[in-house]
Amino acid sequence: MARNVSHGRGGAGQGNIYSGETRTTTPRDLITPTIKQEVYTTGRGGSGNMMHNDPDRPEIARESQDVEVPPMRGRETPHHTGRGGAANAYIPTPDEEKKVREEEDEQLRRVYTAKSTRERSRDVEERRRGADADADADPERGRSSQ
């Protein structure tokens, strides 16, 4: 359902038709690219942010680089699009508010999933470092496992 939304200082040229429809997501949009490098960075820089890429679990490398975005501001909540006045007020319908709440909940779920994936990748890296340290401390054990 299209709605006329007024913005700016006023006048006939300040109105737009807002459909509220979003582009449909396709399966191709949901494919996460993978990192091919042996070592990758997970932060702004520095050796503490370097991780070894696990070729069996490429999703860990990619997701650990994803930046957590703050939850989106509800674009369907009541707001003004200009300097004020009744003509610049946008008040969504209950159905529009419900749809936005569902989208925001999905966005938060994705952020929490990304956090837990990063925590798993840290655990994998810590185990790898522990195994490397054990092999360095016991050269005989390191040779027998190779």
From TrEMBL:
Residues 53-65, 116-146 have a biased composition (Basic and acidic residues). Residues 1-146 are annotated as: Disordered. Residues 16-27 have a biased composition (Polar residues). Pfam families: DUF3602. PANTHER family: PROTEIN PAR32. This is Uncharacterized protein. It comes from Aspergillus rambellii.
